[in-house]
Amino acid sequence: MLKRKIVISGAVAIGILLAGIIFVGCQDDSSTNASSDNNTFLSIAYPSDDTFADVEQLKIRVTGPDIALPLTASHAVDHNQTYAVIELAVPAGNNRRITVHATNHAGDTLYWAAVTLAVASGQRNNVAALLIPINRGVRVYIPYPEDALFDQVNEIQISVTGEGIESPLISTQLVDHEQTSMVVELSVPSGINRYFDIYGLNTFDRYLYRAQVTISLFDSLDNDIAVNLLQLGYGEARRVRIFRNSLPWGFADLDTLLDGMGFSQGPGDNQYQVFNSTLMGSILLVPGRDIVIFEGWQDTAFYNDYMAAHDYFEEFVDMGGSMLMVADAGSTHSGYFDSTHMQFPAGVVFTNISSNLNRVVTPYHVVVAGMRDSLSGSQISYGSLGALPPGALPLTQNHLGQATLVIYAFGKGSVIMSSQPLEYLYHHSGTYTTCGSLLARIVRFMLGKDPTPNPKIAG
After folding, report:
1. Backbone angles phi, psi at 138, to 5 degrees
2. Above 60 in pLDDT, residue 57?
3. Which one, of 203, 201, 209, lies nearest residue 229 by Cα?
4. Confidence class of residue 13 from pLDDT cuts 50, 70 and 90?
5. What CATH number does residue 62 fall under?
6. Do 283 and 429 reside in the same domain of the chain?
7. What is the pLDDT of residue 38?
8. How far lies 160's CA from each of 47, 142, 389, 413, in Å?
9. In terms of CB atoms within 10 Å, which of 93, 365, 406, 407 comes out highest?
């Protein structure tokens, strides 16, 4: 028997979708078409697995750039059928996003689908959506790093995010140091670009290690992932972008350091470029390829330009970029941070306080490994770094126990921030025999190289 479509009218202005009741199989083409001229026909094949037997409703949501409120509709599933076709009156336009949630009696989503299309006016628009199970089994294999810092790791924390995951999925597992690896089993919603952010934390909830991986979950099989934990901030960047208006204290030691590492000047891989602050925000930065270095001891124009491009740089890091911020101005350089209202990444606060003594507080991190516990000399650091984001890892502190060199995660990227005059210390390494190596160690670390070998300083 032919089934007639029944159109339910409603006010689009209040977010109710004009939707035809589902018809299955064939349609009576002789019926009166009471819906709009730009009908969209959504075809949904029912999954054949046992779990779908619990599905009672298909809940549909339509959004788009000029659709003020989401348009919604629902349909009761007939399990005597193998598919459904839903007629929707969707406003014409581009980027119409249709999402479908298949729910059980309790309202839990068991399957979902999403499709984006352009809806033409006055034409029939056909689109098919594939329902996939909401969750997939994922096993994450984590071998333990074989270095001394990992002895301080107390737990592994995994966060999973992605489209359709309203709140991050969090799993925390204690580390058994009698073992050499860990396997974590997770139930993850199906879909594309499931982002796994994995941290190794110490007992103070500091992030010591990190691994990141993005996968798509669609098939019916469980998924195995193997990741390698790396010390937080360790990078694989291939290109260095330096911002400065003048050479810090008149020294071009950062350039000399990069030259000694085999980098040359230029825009390509294994090259570096130097830019004036007037170009901040206009230089294309590629997360994963670039590290950005803001040299220290600059003028007020530099920091004003940074603030004008502040959001651009934070977005770069948030998307997976790496940044080194040498923050050594403060009151010793006419209070430039105060006068320009500097806002450092993730809201870290710089406080003017000079110190002649810094201490290494995370001695097994490779950036400071093997260095003396105490770093002393005139004005080893120019300020303290406070209001640190969750998980931030201080490597050194001043005589008051305040951070002066920190590494922290920001979104998918990372920031290393120092209130020490790194370029000055490097240039005068004969006087600052230990802390003079910090600049080289940090840069090598961020470029994915062993921080200890140094073309100028042995340790």
Report:
1. -130, 130
2. yes
3. 209
4. very low
5. 2.60.40.10
6. yes
7. 62
8. 26, 15, 20, 16
9. 407
Q: Which of 72-76, 408-412, 453-457 has the lowest mean pLDDT?
A: 453-457
Of 180, 208, 231, which residue is a domain's last? 231
Two tokens, residue 370: 């093997």
225/297 same-domain check:
no
Pair 101, 59: CB distance under 8 Å: yes
158 and 273 part of one domain: no
- Per-position b or e across 32-54, b if 16+ CB within 10 A of its CB: eeebbebbbbbebebbeeeebee
Q: What is the mean pLDDT of residues 194-200?
A: 97
* Nearest-angstrom CA–CA distance, 86 and 90: 12
* pLDDT value of position 1: 31
Token representation of residue 425: 């210390």
Beta carbons of 46 and 52 less than 8 angstroms apart: yes
| pTM for the full predicted model | 0.73
310 token code pair: 């502040």
49: nearest Cα among 131, 168, 158, 113: 131
Which domain does 141 fall in, by range? 135-231
- For residue 311, the SS3 value is helix
- Cβ contact 235:291 at 8 Å: yes
Same domain, 256 and 403: yes
pLDDT band, very low/low/confident/very high, at 229 (cuts 50, 70, 90): very high
